[in-house]
Design goal:
Layout lengths: L3 H8 L11 E6 L5 E7 L7 H17 L22 H7 L2
EC number: 1.11.1.24
Keywords: Antioxidant, Oxidoreductase, Peroxidase
Protein name: thioredoxin-dependent peroxiredoxin
Amino acid sequence: ASAYVPAVTRQAPHFKGPGFAIRGLFIIDHNEVIKHISINDLPVGQSVEETLRLVKEFQIVEVHGEVCPANWTPDSPMIKSPPTASKEYFEKVNK
């Protein structure tokens, strides 16, 4: 993965050349599959808490094979996949 990351970042739209800093976040799994890209303009920071939440979300999805809804947190219910199995989740959150 160490050789893969620089190659990806050089091809990314945020790369401006050596010596130029911009805020880019790439979450890449153990198979070198890009799971998430976030690029912010220089004056806008990124949240460490949100990054950790995303990493946990990708890990849980990989282990359980379920879907995390928008604004998911570790104590939130997940949606079962396929959509026909998701009835339980929607009944729970739409009470």
